[in-house]
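Fold this sequence, please.
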Amino acid sequence: MALMKVKFDLKKRVKLAQFVWLMYWFSVMAGVLVFSMGLFFKIELRKRSEMMDNNESHFVPNLLIGVGLLACGINAMGGKICYDSLDPSKFSRWKPMLKPFLVSCVVFNCLLVLTALLCFLMRIPLQFTLAEGLKNALKFYKDTDTPGRCYMKRTLDQMQMEFRCCGNNNFRDWFEIQWVSNRYLDFSAKEVKDRIGSNVDGKYLMDAVPFSCCNPGSPRPCIQYQVTNNTAHYSYDHHTEDLNIWKRGCRDALISYYGGMMNSIGALVLLVTILEVIVMIGLQYVNTSLSNLANPEDPECESEGWILEKTVKETFTDIMDKMKAMSKGNAVDEAGVEGVATGS
């Protein structure tokens, strides 16, 4: 028994073909949108690639770009099929290709679901790549004279001001590294000698943060040096919420930014998947209603269309039987080849 059988006359078939044709072109635009979102996300990642540990995070935007292009091609072809279905002579050329095309649409929809799932899960690998990347970026902040790292200071400063964050996990990360270049240190000064001598690694460490950590909305001048020294500043207690530097870590800020973006893109891909399923079902009705005309020479006669020729259970059983038959056939072929080799 066919699944969701519907009767069609000429008027209904024409309206169906026109509707599905229109929906296919909406799907083409949806494919362009997915492509654009993938390209935009890739550009956003490129902007801060210096603060990421590896390039694995570019897999999802590359997948979005590929899926978007594929959607444009598949939907343009589907629209052409629906347009030609209004002319029996043109539609006859598509009949041998329709079944493989519909199977490829099913595979493509599975790919869309997988892409949406990867968008939602990308926050997990992004946490690790940002944690290590930002940690290294903070270490290179002072290397303004080193080729390949000379722009790291500017990149980090711009990021901290844009995302209103400070450090990797929080502002205290700056206390654990030397972020002031040696060229700006007076090694004859007692304070500098004491700080370097008190550190096992011979680094100049201090409880201070770069100016980009300062909150411009604070009513008092920014306290970026001796942040943990209450006696160095009037009416100041670093344990309270009166710190006028950003307390949020940049890793959390970036994950929140990219995670929100990927959740939106993932939701968009799911909506595109629903649209793709609708047009695929519509094309199946167009195909079956035209293939089952009672009198092919009379285009005005009634016909029946359906989604599946059998029920879901029967269709699944048929597919499994075919797969088993194919596997048995391959096993027989291999046994035959081995027998010939042994006989020779």
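The chain is about 60% helix and 0% strand. The mean pLDDT is 83.
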